[in-house]
Backbone:
């Protein structure tokens, strides 16, 4: 157990609470800034997928919507493959029923979930009797630049990250108290995290195994009923969901395609890129202070918990090597892990400040903390101000009208057609981008000849719509073929429409 | 057996362990800076580096007897590039050229060597201030922070200045703790040399000195202490003499123009930009840790020096608000300040670590974490050094120089105020203002009439050479003047030379 009788940063507890409250208010404030802008700044395909699902759910029960619009919205929802249970999307759809459809609703939910994750970090530091260090860990979790950007994205990842933090708290709470109540709580929260996004299993399984192993005796572990109960409660929601997805609906299996690239594991540059991505996302200094911080825990339980989470994260990287170096948000589970690792280092430093008799060091600590936070808020604000996307709505709306909602199209887009679908109400099939082709080549799939692929893909289509100038530029074979064989019926800023009808 | 070896030899606080580690770190730091050694020095502050390169070549050609007369004359005249600081590094490099021939990378070697030697002094300073383990971490930070790696291998006086600052601070702290004449005089020599090499070191050095005088030793005691007076005298003597000489003989007064912009103090954006620059170059985490760590230092023995250094740095920034975020290398002296300031925090960390994690395994883990922690910034710095390739620049500028004929009468809108053209093209040119130059004058409240300036600057000139087309686009008046009124003497996709002697029409 950590030391309970150490000096406090502020003699009056309300000052600490006030400081924490200021952090939460600042964190919420920056996440709500520029709220109504489009979610194009961070993995827009993934966010528009959630927007389309939420809108489809909403329109399915919206009797006032025109029939064509309802049909399209629902069809666009159903066209999104099953990946995770649409929890965020359902919440957004329910909210739409109350306040109407607003693109920012998902962002508000994601932001609130992230803030709730911060609360878990804070509570964990209290359980560790390292509340002073928890202030810095909390500030790190709430104001890390990548975390800020990722945390307002309409994706399940914000909720998953928050639940990972809550799960780490619950697992440690269970280890400390060893009551049935805490065991069930740990099982529920861990199970929920994995249900929200199954990749949470890696760090959480690692953390749980680490925690249990910290007890030492394998025999004791195996005969412990609570341990088995936690494992069962954790597994049940995900098992049910996978049974539903794989057996009943049968579409979940597609999610496992193009995910495993063991060949990358033999490439030394993969490890370099991994390390750089992880250090870039979690920030270099924090990552290494956090790793060093693990060595400062006085007892094994938190140390093994975090070491296990780290090992789980590493296994995660080995399981998804391609996504680990191309999809930054795959590293999000690292943020709560690093935050918890920071707690003992920060606690050591802050308590040493608290030992000083003068008020000046404490004031300086609070000032430095708020200065650092303000800097991060300012950077985030500048980023948002300089990246505006609202003007795109009119563009995609107009393009949708030009194409016509009833047309059957194939599209070459840089975003899988998600913006045209969402704002233009036009969906179609996708012509593979260069990146898709590269991914298939990496997976060892051979490319069929152009004419066959083209004939197959345009079969039954009315129009070929190109909405990505870079793709158009980089696919000369397609460009030449379309230009030579089909009439260009419309062309504008960044789009080309070819008539495929005979 | 292996376990015993590790436990009882490697990880005990044996002098040879840290000595060996330190030597290895210094050698690795030096080796890292030797990557892509022969790359032209355009990867960091190219104007400043070429300024020194031209000066060194000018000094060297004074001794070269086998060069064509025109080349010798050009080298010497192009080497007269104005006086900022005394050409200490340039003189050392030019004297080395006499032994090895002219190679720009020689300056990289010297600068890197100075920086790494500064690491040795830093280690000794932090060891005296905190502990051996903290000293090792602080030195590793100083040696491997990517910005420091890139900036410390440049042909500029700054790496030498920073190294001398650190030696001076080490001597200062030794003097604080011993009150001996030896350290007082050494401080005076190192500090005086630092100020002589580049007078901007005054802020950090005087900050540290004032911190020790006011906080550790006391003003009354110091006033009566002849050692303190000797230190102050040695500190100011070389730079004082040089500045006086420069003002009277070298026309150095121009160096003080367009440097002070106190109006920026009331602009909040200045402070955010400052913090952003620190974040980008040194790291917000390290800087905040260093600032917090000052309050973990011993209030009488350690804190005065650290507070003095921070105040010196802040005054430095307030004095040069514009340059502080437009000239990255102004942040170089902050690297050792951060490294020293972090020491109390790392001392605390190691005390706690040794207490809570005894045994071999945790130490091995910690060594692993530190090594990975070094590998990431080192690899990042290496990537920057390898990816910035300027090997094609010399031939490009040589071609333009040949076209222009190496004679007088050239004005240009070319990179680095014409220094690239001067160095590789052997062609002097007057530099036409960039939009940033106009901007800084507007900021200083000056009004510049572009037409009048164009007429004045091109009077008597034969050619106007442009290699910065983006910059020309930013100056539509000048672009229009040139293309409308002057014939093109030569052009490719990368440059255009206008003939000013035969205008198509009067502008």
Residues:
């Amino acid at each position: 157990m950590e030391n309970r009788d150490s000096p406090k940063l502020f003699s009056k507890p309300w000052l600490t609470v006030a400081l924490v409250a200021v952090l939460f208010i600042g964190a919420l404030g920056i996440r709500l800034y520029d709220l109504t802008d489009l979610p194009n700044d961070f993995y827009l395909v993934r966010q528009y997928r959630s927007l389309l699902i939420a809108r489809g759910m909403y329109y399915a029960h919206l009797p006032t919507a025109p029939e064509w619009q309802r049909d399209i919205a629902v069809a666009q929802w159903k066209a999104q493959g099953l990946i995770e249970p649409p929890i965020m999307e359902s919440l957004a759809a329910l909210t739409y029923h109350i306040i109407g459809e607003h693109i920012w609703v998902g962002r508000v939910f994601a932001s609130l979930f992230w803030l709730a994750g911060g609360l878990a970090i804070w509570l964990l530091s209290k359980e560790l009797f390292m509340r002073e260090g928890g202030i810095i860990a909390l500030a790190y979790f709430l104001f890390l630049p990548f975390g800020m950007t990722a945390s307002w994205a309409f994706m399940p990842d914000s909720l998953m990250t928050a639940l990972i933090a809550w799960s780490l708290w619950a697992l440690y709470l269970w280890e400390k108290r060893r009551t049935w109540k805490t065991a069930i709580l740990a099982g529920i929260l861990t199970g929920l995290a994995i249900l929200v996004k199954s990749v949470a299993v890696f760090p959480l399984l690692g953390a749980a195994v680490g925690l249990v192993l910290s007890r030492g005796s394998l025999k004791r572990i195996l005969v412990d009923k609570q341990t088995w109960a936690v494992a069962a409660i954790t597994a049940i929601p995900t098992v049910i969901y996978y049974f539903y997805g794989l057996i009943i609906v049968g579409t979940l299996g597609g999610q496992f395609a193009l995910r495993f690239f063991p060949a990358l594991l033999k490439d030394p540059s993969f490890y370099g890129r991994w390390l750089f991505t992880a250090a870039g996302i979690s920030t270099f200094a924090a990552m290494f202070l956090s790793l060093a911080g693990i060595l400062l825990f006085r007892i094994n339980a938190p140390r093994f918990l975090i070491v296990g989470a780290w090992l789980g994260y590493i296994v995660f990287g080995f399981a998804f090597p391609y996504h680990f170096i191309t999809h930054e948000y795959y590293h999000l589970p690292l943020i709560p892990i690093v935050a918890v690792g920071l707690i003992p280092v920060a606690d050591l430093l802050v308590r040493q400040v608290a030992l000083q008799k003068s008020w000046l060091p404490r004031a300086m600590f609070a000032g430095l903390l708020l200065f650092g936070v303000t800097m991060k808020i300012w950077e985030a604000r500048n980023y948002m101000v300089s990246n505006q996307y609202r003007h795109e709505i009119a563009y995609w709306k107009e393009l949708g009208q030009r194409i016509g909602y009833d047309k059957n199209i194939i599209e070459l887009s840089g975003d899988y057609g998600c913006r045209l679908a969402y704002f233009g109400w036009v969906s179609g099939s996708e012509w593979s981008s260069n990146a898709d082709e590269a991914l298939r080549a990496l997976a060892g799939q051979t490319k069929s000849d152009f004419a066959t692929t083209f004939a197959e893909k345009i079969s039954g289509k009315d129009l070929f719509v190109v909405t990505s100038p870079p793709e158009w530029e980089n696919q000369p074979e397609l460009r030449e073929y379309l230009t030579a064989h089909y009439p260009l019926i419309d062309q504008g800023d960044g789009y080309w429409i070819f008539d495929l009808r005979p | 057996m292996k376990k015993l070896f590790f436990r009882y030899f490697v990880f005990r606080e044996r002098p040879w362990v840290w000595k060996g580690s330190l030597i290895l770190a210094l050698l690795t730091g030096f080796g890292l800076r030797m990557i892509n050694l022969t790359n032209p020095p355009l990867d960091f502050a190219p104007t400043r580096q070429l300024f020194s390169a031209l000066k060194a070549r000018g000094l060297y050609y004074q001794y070269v007897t086998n060069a064509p007369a025109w080349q010798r004359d050009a080298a010497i005249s192009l080497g007269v590039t104005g006086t900022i600081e005394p050409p200490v590094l340039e003189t050392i490099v030019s004297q080395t050229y006499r032994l090895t021939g002219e190679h720009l990378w020689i300056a990289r070697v010297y600068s890197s060597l100075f920086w790494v030697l500064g690491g040795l002094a830093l280690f000794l300073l932090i060891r005296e201030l905190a502990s051996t383990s903290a000293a090792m971490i602080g030195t590793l930070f100083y040696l491997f922070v990517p910005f420091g790696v890139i900036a410390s291998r440049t042909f500029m006086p700054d790496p030498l200045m920073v190294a001398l600052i650190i030696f001076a601070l080490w001597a200062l702290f030794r003097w604080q703790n011993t009150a001996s004449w030896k350290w007082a005089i050494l401080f005076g020599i190192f500090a005086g040399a630092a100020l002589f090499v580049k007078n901007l070191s005054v802020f950090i050095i005087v900050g540290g000195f004032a911190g020790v005088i006011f906080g550790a030793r006391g003003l009354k005691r110091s006033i009566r202490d002849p050692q303190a007076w000797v230190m102050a005298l040695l500190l100011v003597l070389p730079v004082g003499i040089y500045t006086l000489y420069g003002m009277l003989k070298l026309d150095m007064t121009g160096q003080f123009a367009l440097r002070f912009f106190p109006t920026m103090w009331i602009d909040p954006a200045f402070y955010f930009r400052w913090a952003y620059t620190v974040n980008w170059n040194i790291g917000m985490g390290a800087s905040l840790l260093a600032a917090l760590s000052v309050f973990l230092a011993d209030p009488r023995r350690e804190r005065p020096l650290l507070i003095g250094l921070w105040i010196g740095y802040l005054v430095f920034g307030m004095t040069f608000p514009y340059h502080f975020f437009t000239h990255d290398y102004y942040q170089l002296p902050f690297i050792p300040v951060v490294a020293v300031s972090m020491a109390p925090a790392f001392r605390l960390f190691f005390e706690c670590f040794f207490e809570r994690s005894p045994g071999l395994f945790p130490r091995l883990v910690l060594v692993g974490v530190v090594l990975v922690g070094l590998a990431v910034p080192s690899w990042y710095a290496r990537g920057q050094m390898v990816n910035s390739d300027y090997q094609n620049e010399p031939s490009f500028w040589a071609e333009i120089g040949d076209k222009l004929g190496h004679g007088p009468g050239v004005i240009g809108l070319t990179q680095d105020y014409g220094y690239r053209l001067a160095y590789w093209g052997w062609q002097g040119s007057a530099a036409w203002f960039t939009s940033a130059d106009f901007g800084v004058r507007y900021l200083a409240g000056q009004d510049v009439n572009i037409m009048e300036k164009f007429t004045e600057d091109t009077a008597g000139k034969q050619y106007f050479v442009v290699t910065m087309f983006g910059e020309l686009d930013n100056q539509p008046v000048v672009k229009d003047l040139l293309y409308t009124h002057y014939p093109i003497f030569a052009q490719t996709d990368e440059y255009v030379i206008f003939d000013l002697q035969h205008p198509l029409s009067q502008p």
Notes: The mean pLDDT of chain A is 92. Residues 13-37+108-386 of chain A form one domain.
